[in-house]
Amino acid sequence: MADTDVGNVNAKEKRSPKRLILLIGAIAVVAAAVLLNAQKSSIFGFTGKICNCRKAEKQKYIGMVEDCCCDYETVNKLNTEVLHPLLQDLVKTPFYRYFKVKLWCDCPFWPDDGMCRLRDCSVCECPESEFPEPFKKALSKDNPVCQEGKPQGAVDRTVDTRAFTGWTVTDNPWTSDDETDNGEMTYVNLLLNPERYTGYIGPSARRIWDAIYSENCPKYASEQSCQEEKILYKLVSGLHSSITVHIASDYLLDEAKNVWGQNLTLLYDRVLRYPDRVRNLYFTFLFVLRAVTKAENYLVEAEYETGKDNVIEDLKTKSLMKQLVSDPKTRAACPLPFDEAKLWKGQRGPELKQQIQKQFRNISAIMDCVGCEKCRLWGKLQILGLGTALKILFTVNGEDNLRHNLELQRNEVIALMNLLNRLSESVRFVHEMSPVAERIAGDGKTKPNHNRT
After folding, report:
1. Cα separation of 338 and 413, whole Å?
2. Most confident residue range from 111-120, 238-247, 359-368
3. Which of 86, 155, 348, 426 could join 245 via S-S bond, C-beta 3.0 to 4.6 A?
4. Residue 201: strand, helix, or coil
């Protein structure tokens, strides 16, 4: 039976040669179409691997960062490839690892009753023999304009057109702290006092943030607030998000066994589930980055000497600063992270600036009320860093000419660059760990926890 069927088929094929040709042609067309489709997929970046689809789904934040001039994808790429590695090296240098701070002060607003549960809350201060010798010298207070008689009678001390003319004692209208109270201040090695979970929780910690938000930068409704008021809120919210990320990334998981690690549930509950908190983190990062790039001439020419024993390290510091503020990738991809020129316009401009300066100074003073010593250290440093960014972008001795009027305290620059590093770490951690944290904690059915402390 089978042989008969085969014979019949062969007879039909001999009678129909055109049918065989058509069959072969159809197979060839289908094969060509499949091959062409595969090539197109390769050209447009799809390789058929499931991970690429998942990667696309993970990009939750796309487009421009609100009120900034750079998009999320570019920020993440620049931070990963350029900024984060440079900043990590920079803050470990002798110049940037020591911060001068007044740790013990009376709270000007309420009795200090905050208590930390952990020994990690305390700060290890530097003995005088440890911190750099140049840091011990008094800063220059000399100002030719203040000489007796007319300014024209003063000696011209100009040597060249450098932006940096030495570390000086200079006022910052945005903050309440400076480094002039030498008798009450101490140097702290930041590498020995990392920002992490300290056990500072409860009413005392909550009161700090409540005072900051409710009294100094309330979240106005969009129709009630101007751009400047919104920006102050976004800066504080972004800094708050960053601090929470630091706690979540270095958390005490088991106090009895002293086991530290990542608390991704905390990260999700306090930051990731609120898109505005993530957006404000990116905004604050770009705001501070803009201040650093705007002060490029000053920061490149500044002196980073920490003593004759650290010559190589100091040269490395100067090189890292130049790479950071002059990086061609950053200039090409994100030349203007934030445009400060659009603010303080109109008749209310000067009045509005004074109002917001007063509010930020008040926030700076609230740092003296933080009941945890290590939290107070990092709170003061990061608020001073943010105040320095505000000073660079909006206040240069009351003038607009940055190059000829910018003067920064050494402590301000140390705070500014350490703040940028902390924000960089937070952006990187959020970018890398968001998918994992959302899978662990985010079924979206639990009630939001609006308590951020």
Report:
1. 19
2. 238-247
3. 426
4. coil
